[in-house]
């Protein structure tokens, strides 16, 4: 059975709901395990002393009709260096799965084999990303919460103007 994990989201300190994901551990086992463990926080601190945990991490980038992005557990703004349960950036897996639907959970990266903790959730298909990002899972419940996040006002650099935060995360 595929693991199921959740992110509880708050906007401006008000809870807006839970997003539940099914992880593709059959086709992307290392990437799935990294995301799962970052949801539970079970691995403690990274080698750079940052919590390996999505709880209290911001969603730092929102691009309407494209995606929402979070998971920077280092700096919280998308500029943090890759962190993972493997001690830094790790290799791509299963780049054959297309980015062909809304609600796909994908790893953000800075090029080949630079996966870490940052992720994005698609708001619609994004075929221009095919072969460039590991699709690690999909939303199975709570896509309405993702859509609410997509409506948050952003600045010129697509950063939310109010805090959008993973208030809790874990495994089901």
TrEMBL record:
Entry EC no(s): 5.2.1.8
Gene3D superfamilies according to UniProt: Cyclophilin-like
Pfam families with a match to the protein in the record: Pro_isomerase
Record-linked InterPro entries: Cyclophilin-like_dom_sf (IPR029000), Cyclophilin-type_PPIase (IPR024936), Cyclophilin-type_PPIase_dom (IPR002130)
Cellular component, GO, one term: cytoplasm
Ranges for domain PPIase cyclophilin-type: 6-171
Keywords noted in UniProt: Isomerase, Rotamase
An example molecular function term from Gene Ontology annotations: cyclosporin A binding
Metal-binding found in the keyword field: no
GO BP, one annotated term: protein folding
Family per similarity comment: Belongs to the cyclophilin-type PPIase family.
Identification of the protein by name: Peptidyl-prolyl cis-trans isomerase
């Amino acid at each position: 059975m595929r693991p199921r994990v959740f992110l509880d989201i708050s906007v401006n300190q008000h809870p807006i709901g839970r997003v539940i994901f099914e992880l593709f551990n059959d086709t992307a086992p290392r990437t799935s395990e990294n995301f799962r463990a970052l949801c539970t926080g079970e691995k403690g601190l990274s080698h750079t002393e940052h919590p390996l945990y999505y709880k209290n991490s911001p969603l730092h980038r929102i691009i309407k009709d494209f995606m929402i992005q979070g998971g920077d557990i280092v700096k919280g703004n998308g500029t943090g260096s890759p962190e993972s349960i493997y001690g830094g950036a790790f290799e791509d897996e299963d780049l054959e799965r297309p980015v062909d639907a809304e609600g796909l959970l994908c790893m953000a990266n800075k090029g080949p084999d630079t996966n870490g903790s940052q992720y994005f959730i698609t708001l619609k298909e994004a075929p221009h990303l095919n072969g460039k990002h590991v699709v690690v899972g999909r939303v199975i419940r709570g896509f309405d919460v993702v859509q609410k996040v997509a409506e948050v006002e952003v600045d010129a650099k697509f950063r939310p103007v109010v805090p959008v935060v993973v208030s809790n995360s874990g495994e089901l």
